[in-house]
Amino acid sequence: MKVILTHERADGDAIASMLAASKLYPDAIPVLPRLVNRNIQEFLTLYGEQLPFVAAKDRPHGRITEVILVDTQTIVPIKGMGPKTRITIIDHHPPSEELDKRATYIGRTVGATATILVERLRDARISLSPVEATLLLIGIHEDTGSLLYSTTTPADLRAAAWLMEQGANLNVANATLHHPLDSRYRAVYTELAKNAELFEFHGHSVLIATARPNVYLDELSSLAHKLGDLFEPDATFLIIQLDSSIQLIARSSTDDIDVGELAKAFGGGGHSRASAALISGHSIGEIRARLLQYLQSAVKPMITVRDIMSYGVHTLPADLSLAEAQSQARRYGHEGFPVVDEGQVVGVVTSHEIDRAMHHRLGHARVSAYMHKGNIYVSPSDSVARVQQVMMEYGVGQVPVVENGQIIGVVTRTDLIKAWGGVPEPARRAEIQDRLKAALPAPLIELLLQARDVANEMGYSLYVVGGFVRDLLLGVPNLDLDLVVEGDAIALARGLAQRVGGRVRGHSRFGTAKIILGEKRAKGLPPSLDFVTARTEFYEHPSALPEVERSSIKQDLYRRDFTINTMAICLDRDRYGELLDFYGGERDLRNKLIRVLHNLSFVEDPTRMLRAVRLEQRLGFRIESRTAELITNALDLLDRVTGDRLRHELNLIFAEREPENSLRRLAELGILSRLHPALRCDTWLMRKFRDLRERATMTGAPGMYMALMCYRLSSEELKNFAARLHISREDLRLLEEVNALKSQEEKLAARSMSNSTVYRILEPYRDESVFVFGVATDQRMVRKRVDLYLSRLRYVQAEVSGDDLRRRKVPPGPLYRQILDAVLDARLDGRVRTREEEERLVDALLTSAGWKPMPI
To answer: Is 355's pLDDT higher than 90?
Structure first.
């Protein structure tokens, strides 16, 4: 026999999940718990005859082979269960470490357990009656606060929408969820509201309310929701005296207050958002005092300005002209600037206001005349709510952050939006630390931590950023570290060199430094380590090389190409392993998308188009639709990019494992033909690239790929393409030789040809050129003769030499070359095989030339 069970004091999600499980496991009996919340019990009283539930006293007796346990992970054994009873747990909370060994867990973190089961019903195309759909909708709405709790996920909304399509009745659901209190509960509610106290812990509001009802009430949890609606705290705790025991009821609306863990400390249980405990032997006052003490350490700090701010900020002096302010706004692209006078913040001016003033020809006016005046700033310890208040009060989108009288950074509207996701949790940092440990050699991690220590002692922060972080999250090996310093990279490198040894090469103009560790470095360490000062970039005109300026880590990441390359890992002592993801890089990594950060990305640097394709093909991702549209819009800007930069990007593509895939994509996007109109990538070229890899036994593959790509160009087209890309003389020789060999194809395809003829046709060209030509040709006979030349003919040598002719007293001249070539041809064609035969041939050739051979 199989049964479906849930927890006691079952709420809407628990009973709804039992219903859904009974539809998915039709041979299992859904057995109601003894205690069901009053509103759900009344729903069952009205509509229970249409539902499959069985009361505990009415369930069949017999051995239970399997229990399907929903909306809880704690099972209370019932009669019929034994040590071989299988347990299937379906829950929307992470699995407990204390799960029964017989148990199998099904679930994931969503707003309600019913959501998980509704998804399975939908996928299995199992139909529902309106009553069934309504009960399931009640379960989802009750556990998600009508889809408004922060734990609500898109899956909960989709499940609720599907239930509406199945006929769920919103009026019935609303009446069940918002059940009026009877006189007994109203009296307790009034007492709780009267005794309610609001406290603040780390920026979170916590409500504690007490009551001593004179009658026993078995369902008090609904009062916690109603008080929460009244006071709107982040967490609600009810302490209610019930005869000789205390009922503690806890509800939370934030991940920062885990009431499940708190209830365990009082001998109770539950999950992170709802829990309860029954406590004996203590008074309300004792429980209240103990609860307050526990909350001091149990509540996680709310997100503060310091968690979301950007360090480093551009300010404008109050006496600066608006014309100069507009120039600064265009240079840095900021929405606004703090305005300072003698080092103190006196206001904020927005780019919009600057532009409006300039429209009215007020460029001569001072910034102070049109700025927002006042104490428009926050401190690092202020809450996000304080930032929102300042933004709304003054109508600005950027608020300076001031500490000890000095501006240290800025908070923007974008920062507030990013804060919705919260700051990285300690468990997340532990995960990143473990990934670093697994990905990097121990000596390298030790060196990074030493660099971190030096940076922190200097007041700097150190991050590893970009491609390494991307590949770390993908589980792809990568030891190419890109280290960014919020501070002076050169000073950091010198400080590290004093500690670990090594030489430092710095470039102050670019804020970069390299510490060279030398040959005596420990095993597992790279030859050098590079540090870069966090910087921002601006472009004087489209496709220009960027100018750089020292900045914050956030702005440094913003200058990068794609979101998946904008993540950073902080190495600081107190933040080690913290993942910085300001621009949705990890989201795009999960969704396998290549996305630019802003709409002018390809305008500022058109070579990013080629990089987008290279990354897309290497990772098996897809260029996001808007990014693809921006590529199309910026194609003509490729004409402004220097040939050196385009050639560099092409060579990087040719260095990929299967570059033909990137070339095909470049062709699809119109990029390849923009490099030269005659370039194309079709099935022929893709096949030739694969053939090249299969046949290649020599180095120089990128150049060979380039030669194959250009094989079908005419001589004039090749000349123009080489000039456009500034191809070096050495590389151009390969392209030209392969191109020239096309004219020899018909000769080499002849039905009959001696080895010496093959040799004489191919010998003037470099082996690398001949090899590429052999790959490019479609004629089997030509390829066969190229293979013969490369594998054997090019190694054939005659044993006689010019010394032999000199010993025969033959005077120097053209005759030498004629004789030696004839001997080599004879060797190639197998007409001579030994030195003696070669010497007889020499004598015969000299005689025919009218020269009497001299005895040796």
So the answer is: no
Question: Please, are residues 326 and 363 in contact by the beta-carbon 8 Å criterion?
Answer: yes
CB 786: neighbour CB atoms within 10 A?
Answer: 25
pLDDT in tens, 169-184: 999 999 888 877 778 8
Q: Break the chain down into helix, strand, coil percent, rounded to 5.
A: 50, 15, 35
Q: What is the DSSP string of 779-824?
A: -HHHHHHHHHHHHTGGG---S--HHHHHHTTPPSSHHHHHHHHHHH
Least confident of 71-80, 102-111, 481-490, 614-623: 71-80
Tokens of 825: 């041809």
Nearest alpha-carbon partner for 176 in 42, 53, 47, 274: 42
Beta bridge mates, 622: 593
> Letter for the amino acid at 599?
N
Average pLDDT over residues 386-393: 83
User: What is the token pair recorded at 94?
Assistant: 């992470």
- What DSSP string describes 274-338? EEEEEEES--HHHHHHHHHHHHHHHSPPPPBHHHHPEE----EETT-BHHHHHHHHHHH--SEEE
Average pLDDT, the chain: 89
Question: Is residue 149 a contact partner of residue 253, using CB atoms and an 8 Å limit?
Answer: yes
Polymer length in residues for the chain? 856
- Partnered with residue 485 across adjacent β-strands are 462, 533
User: What tokens were used for 78?
Assistant: 């019932």
Two tokens at 435? 């990934």
Whether the model pTM is above 0.70: no
Q: Kindly give the residue spans of alpha helices, DSSP state H, lying in 635-764.
A: 643-654, 659-668, 672-675, 683-695, 701-709, 715-724, 729-741, 745-748, 755-762
Residue 370: CB atoms within 10 Å: 19
Q: In sequence order, what are the beta bridge partners of 593?
A: 622
Between CA 12 and CA 19, with CA 15 as vertex, the angle to 5 degrees is 130
Q: 242 phi and psi, to 5 degrees?
A: -120, 95
Helix (H, G, I), strand (E, B) or coil at 68: strand
Judge contact between 335 and 387, C-beta under 8 A: no
CB 463 within 8 A of CB 533: no
| Residue 435, C-beta contacts closer than 8 angstroms, at least 6 positions apart | 472, 473
Q: How far apart are CA 780 and CA 792, in angstroms?
A: 18
